[in-house]
Specification:
Strand order of the largest sheet: 2-3-1-4
Structural class: alpha+beta
Largest sheet: 4 strands, antiparallel
Order of helices and strands: EHEEHEH
Number of domains: 1
Shape: globular
Number of strands: 4
CATH topology: Alpha-Beta Plaits
Distance between the termini: 22 Å
Helix content: 25-40%
Number of helices: 3
CATH architecture: 2-Layer Sandwich
Radius of gyration: 14 Å
């Protein structure tokens, strides 16, 4: 799986909510319009496709910023505490 920062600037509040809900299905919110997503190649295509259908291509923008594993572990925050990048991941060992 690859890691991406997904950041967006959506001009309409209704579309903004839809984009946020879509991103919540694929990643973890880091700031109001910024998500950290760990995606397989298939999930990356699905997320891009869903967002493409939701946004107004002339007025809105979504950025997909790839991150190397070292970059993900090096994320720092000032101010409010943030969860570790993989805090919500669950590993089941049988």
């Amino acid at each position: 799986m690859d890691s991406y920062i997904v950041a967006y600037d959506i001009s309409d509040p209704k579309r903004l909510r839809k984009v946020a809900h879509c991103c919540e299905d694929y990643g973890y919110r880091r700031q109001l319009s910024v998500f950290l997503c760990r995606l397989s190649a298939t999930d990356f295509v699905k997320l891009r496709s869903r967002l493409y259908d939701l946004i107004d291509l002339a007025a809105d923008q979504v950025l997909f910023i790839p991150l190397c594993p070292r970059c993900v572990t090096g994320i720092e925050a000032l101010g409010r505490p943030t969860e570790a990048a993989d805090a919500k991941d669950v590993v089941v060992v049988v």
